[in-house]
Amino acid sequence: MAHTIFYARVSTAEQTLEHQVAQAERAGFVIDEVVADKGVSGVATRLCERPEGKRLYDKLRSGDVLVVRWVDRLGRSYTDVTEVIREFMARGVIIKTVINGMVFDGATTDAMQMAVRDALISFLAATAQAQAEATREAQKAGIAHAKGRQGKYRGRKPSYTREQIEQLESLPAGMNTTDAARATGLSRQTVLRIRANPIAAYARVAKWEVEQS
């Protein structure tokens, strides 16, 4: 019997498993099982090297649906993400994302649909890698900055959290700025700023997290 499995990676105090599951359920997913890695950085660790990621490989069977918040949960680089998606599709697993409702199904046989699907996988994987690289650079800068100071870092805290960025990304693509601000608790200007450059927003949060540790 096919199952719908939600995989989550929770790497910071501001990310909660409950929040991520609730996002998926609000998007209409009926989840049979949750598999989650906690305290694991997706920037540094491949899915197959994470404790629960390994279990995910063992559990998924043909016909199962794997739900993730976004493709960045599946790998740390372009190569990782594309390899994981292709391997799971080859097993007959359907992969769906909470953000933007993407569906990757290996059963597709139409040449045009396959071309569009593969191009989309490549684009999203490249975006995930860009985000990961921005986060790595921000963390390096934060560590270097913290080492160069004697006292506690007093830099200005971003006006948003990682959780709020993720919440904003999970909203319907067509939602207007005012409604998005109301849903996330952010100002309209902050919503516009994050939407204009979400990678930079993630990087800023990552840098602050390191400097406050």
Explain how this protein is built.
The chain is of the alpha/beta class. A hairpin with a 5-residue loop joins β4 (94-97) and β5 (103-105). The chain contains 8 helices and 5 strands, in the order βαβαβαββααααα. The chain folds into 2 domains: 4-107 and 119-124, Rossmann fold (3-Layer(aba) Sandwich); 128-212, no CATH class. The longest helix has 37 residues, at 111-147. The chain has helices at residues 17-26, 51-59, 78-90, 111-147, 162-170, 177-184, 188-196, 198-212; strands spanning 4-10, 33-38, 65-68, 94-97, 103-105.
Quickly list its features:
single chain, alpha/beta, Rossmann fold, globular
Give the arrangement of secondary structure elements.
Elements lengths: L3 E7 L6 H10 L6 E6 L12 H9 L5 E4 L9 H13 L3 E4 L5 E3 L5 H37 L14 H9 L6 H8 L3 H9 L1 H15 L1
Helix pairs in contact: 3-4, 4-8, 5-6, 6-7, 7-8
The value of Rg in angstroms is 18 Å
Q: Can you tell me the CATH class of the largest domain? A: Alpha Beta
CATH superfamily of the largest domain: Resolvase, N-terminal catalytic domain
Question: What is the overall silhouette?
Answer: globular
The CATH topology of the largest domain is what?
Rossmann fold
* Strands side by side in the biggest sheet: 2-1-3-4-5
Which architecture name of the largest domain does CATH use? 3-Layer(aba) Sandwich
Gap from first CA to last CA: 45 Å
Number of domains: 2
Helix and strand run: EHEHEHEEHHHHH
Number of helices: 8
Work out the strand percent: 5-15%
Unreliable stretches covering 5 or more consecutive residues: none
Instruction: Name the average pLDDT.
Output: 81
Structural class: alpha/beta
